[in-house]
Amino acid sequence: MLSNVASRPIDARTPQDSIVEVRDVHYSIGGRAIFSGLNLQIQRGRITAIMGPSGTGKTTLLRLMTGQIKPDSGQVLFDGIDVSNLGTRELYALRRRMGMLFQNGALLTDEDVFENVAFPLREHTDLPEALIRNIVLTKLQSVGLRGAARLMPSELSGGMARRVALARAMATDPEVLIYDEPFTGLDPISMGMIVRLVRQMNYALGITSIVVSHDVEELAILADASYIIAGGKVAASGSFVELKDHDSEIVHQFINGLADGPVAFHYPAPDYYEDLLTG
Amino acid sequence: MHFLRELWDNVREFITTVGSVALFFGRVLAQLPGALLRPSLVVEQVHNTGALSLVIIMTCGLFVGMVLGLTGYDLLQRFGSEEALGTAGALAVTKELGPVVTALLFAGRAGTALASEIGLMRATDQLTAMEMMAVDPMRRVIAPRFAGGIIAMPLLTVIFIAIGIFGVQVVGVQLFKVDAASFWSQMRSSVGLDDIMEGVVKGCVFGVACSLIAVYEGYNAAPTAEGVGRATTRTVVNSAVLTLMLDYILTAIML
Question: Are the C-beta atoms of A62 and A49 separated by less than 8 Å?
Fold first, then answer.
């Protein structure tokens, strides 16, 4: 019943190839506007990168997409369903079609790797233990960590924890996988592994991936389409090549990693010399 | 003027907090039947909050009983009625000291453990991850811990009372050679079922209060190290204050 509600569009349909659509979203926290008329579309079956300087609201956007917070105005549609209008039960039914990888993995610290991956299966299904075991081992094998099934989260490196979290997010075969800063704090080998896994998961399983990050180099390899968010709106969108040639100053600063530009090096402050003299 | 504004702010904050706790309590109660249908989760929490508190409860029960034996004997022998030590000790431990001291120890051991565990789960996104997996943390994390607390607390109270009475007996009968037959017979004739029920009812009420405060503070902890620390401190302080306030109200009602 609930899954029917979640899979049936109840609002205006988005275009056929778009699974998530953000329409004219305004959102502010404590009087500070985070988004002021944000519009974007996530194409089904593709890897979409959402980039932007720190503090532009990338993670806030993910929270809006997953219904953790509601916009002040505007719509966030998931497969035609307005996420912000759903009750708790409908929202939970919808979230069963999503998987999310948190920046720190967010593994359950009192359960081992196996139980972490088995968690959503145990909570949402009545599958026999033997079948759960097979599914968990399959998922762990796909991220290369079947041998770590009985390790505790405290025994894992940052990269391993994220791979376990990816296996857990994949356990119930979601339609959309959302990655929140998946590359932060990883060594190059772990980063390479995550990039490979995101691609593999996306194309082998035919799912849609949304990657929020500010690691331009990794996203250049990975993403089919990218959005750069700045000033509460989409500053630029398109393929990486298109973004590289974009004439916007902020896009140029972000893509080339320049220390100064529209995003100033100095935080707003009174005059330096006056400040020193009045001390 | 400034004082009045501050007073008003504090009153308003207190009312808001009471309302917030009441709403939270309603949400926990709504999830409680679901939690009880998964006994393995509740049994695990009874173990965490109850069995792991057993040693501290028994040790403190013994010493509270022994101190009561010393002071009670000192008082009663002045009136030549040392045989009443059994009655006095049993009533004091059963009706007052047992439930109250158990609640204070429960808040200090199990309550802080619950609040910090849930607070850390909040700080490390574990609760958000559950929500994203379409698993309600109120049902999966909070309700089983609350149920474990309210089951464990009356059991710990009864154990504390039994060990406390044993402590009174150790000092009175073994050390000061109060007549054992008088000690036990006076206790049996004076301590009724209603006295024991008073202790058990208080244990149940304090169990609900302390468990609710612990899970509420943990769930609403700011997701930082400082936030978890504050939640833990508030758990102990609020539990202790509420326990003593409720004790007065319950004693007055059951007098």
Answer: no
